[in-house]
């Protein structure tokens, strides 16, 4: 018959009290009491189980042979059907670890498993137990926690991997909740606990997804005092993040899938959080990664339009951070080289921002940062903007309003200053004045028909004749012409010239020599020699009628002119023919003093006929035919 649980509980409490007070730590009383408590963990009465959980810790340390059995008995209580018993078991685990620190790692692992409980009250007890383990040995406890974060290999059973995934979430949640205790009491700067935590978390980053990595970085690592400035630990964290970015970039480049490239965006954001916002890692290192892996046009074009805008914004912000904060010296690419590379890429980077009147403030600020880099290079190195950058800046001026950013417009004007209005107006005014003066002077020298005013007008009533000019070798000597008496006529001849020059006329159209009239005969219009003959005869000739027009113009007789009998009848020789006649004597040089020609006038030679000089009529006929 089973004894009354109340009586049994009263008896056990008395035995436990005597065992605790027994000076013989390894005596039979203490041994028998420990064995009895281990047996009570399997009792059907919860109060007896609770009594066992509360007192095993005082006795198990003295009997190593019973230690393992006692620990397993406590673990069994943590899985009891009664919540009160389980809670007492959680507390008993802490007491076991406190009694023997060698059990901290083992018990911390068990408590992590117990964090998956669905009962909120029980979870709070387990968290408290883990926190106490952190106080007992932070390095060991943190390492156990971080070990449970890493995912299992694919070779492990799928069910186990799913359990690990759930456990990871539980552990991260616990670490986040205990962050204050971890930062303020356990992971102190330079402590073993801090080193263990940082090393364990950074090690698991390559194996985790972004959501877990973000919790680790934002909630666990960055709050640590070790990340309050650029350091080697910050550099290691940044490299772990950039490795994740490079992994997605390589996969996206091989597959051509834009969605895979998009997976790199959150890691770039996280890297910017570490570098730009928290300044926990050197910005120069992140800028090097952008310039070598992302900012090139070929790579950037593979991203979607929205991702391009985000990438360029982060790049510009990283450039500013690298300029503002002193960077540690290393063997990498220097900042000045990276800055030039960014400026050289500005045409496409600015286009990728896709600026518009509705662009977000971050994109507009990124444009300001890039334009400042361009302006700095221009001022420091007298750099000349390439045409494609000038075209991009011109487009930005039309898309970005001054209400959005006055800095954008000011920087563009500094990079590409507009031409001065006063100089343009002055130049235009000067050119207009010069043009007006030139036109005015030309107008004074030109008549209404466009010919110079100093030249006499051509008679309008006479049909135009084609003038044949001989070559320069057959031209009469100018001195001989000037010495000829006919070259210098009297006042009457000069007045006739002035009279013809003063009368307005329109220039008649040219006609070919030897043109024929409607009857098929050669035009009977007066030739030059006939007009000269009429003028010398003194007969008045009307301008409207060629036979009535006065021509008081003297014909200049050249020293080598042929005899009067060599001229054709009725003066039908053209000037070309007359020049040919004088070509025989052109080679003979003459001077003003050696002129010896008869003083007969042209009229006299005309009246003398074609044979007055003894010329054969047949010769005259042949010459006329050639002309």
Overview of this protein structure:
This protein has 627 residues and is an all-alpha fold. The chain has 30 helices and no strands. One of its GO terms (molecular function) is RNA binding. Keywords: Apoptosis. Residues 427-451, 591-613 have a biased composition (Polar residues).
Structural shape:
rod-shaped
User: What is the H/E string?
Assistant: HHHHHHHHHHHHHHHHHHHHHHHHHHHHHH
Structural class label: mainly alpha
- What proportion strand? under 5%
Pfam families: API5 (PF05918)
Region (Disordered): 417-627
Family: Belongs to the API5 family.
Biased composition (Polar residues): 427-451, 591-613
List the helices and strands and how they pair.
Elements: H1 5-21, H2 28-40, H3 46-55, H4 64-77, H5 83-99, H6 104-114, H7 120-136, H8 138-147, H9 158-177, H10 179-186, H11 192-204, H12 210-221, H13 232-255, H14 258-262, H15 264-277, H16 283-294, H17 297-300, H18 305-324, H19 335-344, H20 346-352, H21 361-381, H22 387-399, H23 406-415, H24 421-444, H25 478-483, H26 491-502, H27 528-537, H28 575-582, H29 602-607, H30 617-626
Helix pairs in contact: 1-3, 2-4, 3-5, 4-5, 5-6, 5-7, 6-7, 6-8, 7-8, 8-11, 9-12, 12-15, 13-15, 13-16, 15-18, 16-18, 16-19, 18-21, 19-21, 20-22, 21-23
């Amino acid at each position: 018959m089973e004894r009354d649980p109340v009586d049994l509980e009263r008896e056990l409490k008395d035995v436990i009290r005597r065992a605790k007070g027994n000076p013989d730590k390894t005596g039979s009383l203490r041994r028998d009491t420990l064995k009895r408590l281990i047996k009570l963990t399997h009792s059907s009465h919860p109060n007896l189980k609770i009594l066992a959980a509360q007192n095993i810790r005082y006795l198990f340390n003295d009997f190593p042979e019973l230690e393992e059995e006692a620990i397993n008995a406590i673990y069994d209580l943590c899985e009891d059907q009664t919540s009160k018993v389980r809670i007492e078991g959680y507390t008993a685990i802490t007491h076991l670890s406190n009694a023997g620190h060698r059990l901290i790692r083992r018990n911390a692992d068990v408590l992590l498993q117990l964090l998956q409980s669905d009962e909120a009250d029980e979870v709070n007890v387990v968290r408290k137990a883990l926190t106490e383990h952190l106080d007992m040995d932070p390095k060991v406890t943190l390492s156990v926690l971080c070990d449970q974060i890493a995912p299992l290999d694919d070779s492990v059973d799928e069910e186990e991997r799913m359990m690990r995934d759930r456990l990871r979430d539980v552990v991260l949640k616990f670490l986040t909740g205990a962050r204050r205790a971890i930062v303020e009491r356990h992971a102190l700067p330079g402590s073993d606990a801090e080193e263990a935590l940082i090393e364990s978390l950074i090690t698991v980053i390559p194996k985790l997804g972004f959501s877990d990595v973000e919790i680790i970085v934002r909630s666990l690592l960055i709050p640590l005092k070790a990340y309050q400035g650029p350091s080697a630990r910050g550099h290691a964290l940044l490299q772990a993040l950039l490795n994740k970015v490079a992994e997605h970039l390589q996969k996206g480049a091989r597959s051509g899938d834009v969605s895979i490239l998009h997976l790199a965006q959150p890691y770039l954001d996280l890297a910017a959080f570490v570098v730009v916002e928290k300044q926990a890692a050197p910005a120069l290192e992140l800028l090097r990664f952008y310039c070598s892996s992302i900012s090139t046009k070929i790579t950037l074009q593979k991203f979607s339009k929205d991702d391009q805008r985000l990438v360029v914004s982060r790049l510009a912000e990283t450039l500013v951070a690298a300029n503002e904060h002193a960077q540690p010296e290393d063997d990498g690419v220097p900042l000045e080289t990276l800055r030039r590379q960014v400026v050289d890429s500005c045409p496409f980077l600015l286009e990728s921002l896709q600026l518009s009147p509705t662009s977000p403030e971050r994109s507009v600020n990124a444009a300001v940062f890039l334009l400042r880099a361009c302006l700095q290079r221009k001022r420091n190195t007298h750099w000349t903007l390439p045409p494609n950058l000038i075209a991009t800046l011109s487009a930005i001026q039309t898309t970005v309003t001054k209400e959005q950013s006055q800095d954008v417009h000011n920087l563009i004007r500094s990079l590409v200053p507009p031409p001065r209005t006063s100089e343009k107006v002055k130049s235009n005014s000067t050119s207009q004045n010069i043009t007006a003066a030139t036109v005015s002077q030309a107008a004074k020298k030109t008549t209404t028909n466009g010919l110079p005013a100093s030249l006499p007008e051509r008679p309008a009533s006479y049909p135009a004749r084609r003038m044949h000019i001989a070559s320069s070798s057959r031209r009469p000597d100018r001195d001989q012409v000037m010495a000829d008496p006919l070259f210098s006529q009297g006042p009457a001849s000069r007045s006739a010239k002035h009279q013809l020059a003063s009368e307005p006329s329109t220039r008649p159209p040219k006609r070919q020599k030897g043109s024929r009239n409607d009857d098929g005969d050669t035009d009977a219009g007066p030739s030059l020699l006939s007009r000269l003959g009429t003028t010398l005869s003194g007969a008045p000739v009307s301008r409207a009628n060629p036979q009535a027009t006065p021509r008081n113009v003297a014909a200049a007789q050249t020293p080598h002119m042929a005899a009067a009998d060599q001229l054709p009848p009725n003066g039908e020789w053209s000037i070309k023919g007359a020049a040919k006649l004088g070509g025989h004597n052109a080679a003979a040089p003459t001077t003003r003093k050696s002129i010896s020609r008869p003083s007969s006038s042209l009229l006299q030679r005309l009246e003398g006929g074609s044979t007055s000089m003894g010329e054969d009529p047949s010769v005259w006929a042949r010459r006329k035919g050639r002309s």
